[in-house]
């Protein structure tokens, strides 16, 4: 074995994913070819039919968010709901519950100022007024 082979064998390690083997460099930089190869191998992985049976608190609150919001609409406070969840074995502070509920909200699309209907109307008004003056 040459010195180059020894260095190469020390640099490369193998990651085994099922029946697939992916070579990973120990350096922090990867060639585009390496990344494409890994991408193809990841895409080739078969789907699994195993559903996740466990989730973290953020995921759990995301799943429960509609029910929590409905309880709030029925007059329950976050303090009351956090206490009740704790009694059911789901320990969470009111502040954390609030934070996780905010994360679970569907994101609102941001409207660009330059393309908003108001700015377009203002531009139209500005263009109309300059045309009338001339």
How many strands, what sense, and barrel or not for the largest sheet?
2 strands, antiparallel
Structural class: mainly alpha
- On the 0 to 100 scale, the average pLDDT is 77
**Strand order, biggest sheet?**
1-2
Helix content: 55-70%
Shape: flat
Which stretches are poorly predicted, pLDDT < 50 over at least 5 residues? Answer: none
The helix/strand order is HEEHHHHH
Put simply, the count of helices is 6
Feature tags:
single chain; 134 residues; mainly alpha; two-stranded antiparallel ribbon; 6 helices; 9% strand
How does this model look, in words?
The chain has 134 residues and is mainly α. Helix 3 packs across helix 5 and helix 4 (78-87) packs across helix 5. The longest helix is centred in the middle third of the chain and has 17 residues, at 57-73. It is built from six helices and two strands, in the order αββααααα. The relative contact order is 0.07. A hairpin with a 2-residue loop joins strand 1 (12-17) and strand 2 (20-25). Among the domains are: 3-44, no CATH class; 57-104. It has helices spanning 3-11, 32-44, 57-73, 78-87, 94-104, 117-133, and strands at 12-17, 20-25. It has a two-stranded antiparallel ribbon with strand order 1-2. The mean pLDDT is 77.
List the SSEs and their pairings.
Elements: H1 3-11, E1 12-17, E2 20-25, H2 32-44, H3 57-73, H4 78-87, H5 94-104, H6 117-133
Antiparallel strand pairs: 1-2
Task: Give a concise summary.
With 134 residues, this protein is mainly alpha-helical.
